[in-house]
Amino acid sequence: MARRTKEEALATRELILDAAERVFHQRGVSRTSLQEIAKDAGLTRGAIYWHFDNKGELFHAMMERVTLPMMARMTEITPDDEARPLDKIRRNTATALRQVATEPQVRRVFEIAMQKVEYVDEMQEMQQRKISGRNECMDDMQRLLQIAQQLGHIKADAHLRNATIGLFALVGGIKYNWLLDPQAFDLEAVGLATLDAYLAGLKTSSVV
Predict the structure, then answer these.
(1) Residue 150 neighbours by CB distance under 10 Å
(2) What's the mean per-residue pLDDT of the chain?
């Protein structure tokens, strides 16, 4: 009975997250109430409060459901990745861009995060969480660039933090502009070509 209750609770939580994703995408986060999410999910508002303290917590859980698996791929570094760290960056970027372009849920969540949320009032704490998550992702990216520098794959005088900030901004900017107009260009193709051009500026002459 306890196991069934736990499974039912998890199923209800997923139902709430699905509804939040739909309504946030349709109306924007600031214009969405928990009552509207409850109605979309076919639940009471009390059921939502049983799982989430407020709209900010619900938004954060909705984001993590998609972004945590993506971040896990970046943080996992195998011996092969340590030998070819720039390939790791390129492979992770390609996977992320492909997911945004081809997986409806991933695309919806990034559209919400980039176009349909204002970090004010109850969402201010979520802005700090977003900054923290961004910094962790940048630290992981810088770690790969540091390995590449130690291996002599990128220039010894390259400023790694500046390079990381530029790389992060480049990938994020490509995604943002594609989401504004998905018909404008091929996200994965243009994203990788731009990434390759950026990395070429960091590489030593001996690395192809």
Answers:
(1) 12
(2) 92
